[in-house]
Amino acid sequence: MKKFKSVFAVALAMVLALAFIGCGSMTNAVIDDQAAKRGPEEGLGEIWIDDEAIALAGSASSSQACLDACTAVFNLMNQQRAAQGLAQLVWSDQLTQAAQVRANEITTSFSHTRPNGSAFWTVDSNVQYGENLAKLYQSADSVYTAWMNSPTHAANIMDAGYKTVGIAICQTADGSWYWAQEFGY
User: Fold this and answer.
1) In 10 A of CB 108, how many CB atoms?
2) Where are the beta strands (DSSP E) in 89-128?
């Protein structure tokens, strides 16, 4: 009887694991290979503000679930930073506008390079210095965990030099979420 229970437990575990994978619980969610960070001298003296893109992003409507998820990531970041003795980040509407532009752009070109070939920070060079991207994560917890499990993304989140952040999600017609997190000094 004891042997039967052990075999049954192993078989049940295998069936559950296969069902978990087969039912799509393992998503195709992706974070980019590397987070982006603008060097201190990069673009020095150049002013880039993509007013047209920012205007379009400002008219984008986000679901309440997306807005709530961005707020939840913001809170998770600040809890982690406080636990490490770092100052909390301040929410920036200007960075959030840039993040919305980037979230919209990565639906067609998932890269730290913008679809026009310019660097991520050219949406608004006055405020953008770091960027984390992700796609297809449908919750704050899942995207935050993925970012914190990536050394370069976690480094952006935990960078003591950053003082401000903006986070946005573009929700596509099929319901997929594309995340952009922009950091500033």
Assistant:
1) 9
2) 90-91
Task: Give the 3-state DSSP-derived string for 160-181, with helices as H, strands as E and coil as C.
Answer: CCCCEEEEEEEECCCCCEEEEE
Q: Which residues contact 138 (CB under 8 A, 6 or more apart)?
A: 27, 29, 177
Name residue 12's amino acid.
L
Among candidate residues 72, 100, 103, 77, the one with its CA nearest the CA of residue 90 = 77
The length of the chain, given as a count of residues: 185
Q: 111: which 2 tokens?
A: 């890269």
Q: Return the structure tokens found at 33.
A: 């290979």
Nearest to 164, CA basis, from 49, 100, 87:
87
Position of tokens 């899942």? 142
Does residue 131 come out as left (phi exceeding 0), alpha (psi in the -120 to 50 range) or beta?
Answer: beta
Higher per-residue pLDDT: 71 or 17: 71
Q: Are 130 and 35 in contact (CB under 8 A)?
A: yes
Amino acid found at 118: S
Q: Which two tokens stand for residue 55?
A: 């205007």
Per-residue pLDDT reduced to its tens digit, 28-62: 787 666 777 887 677 777 666 666 665 555 545 56
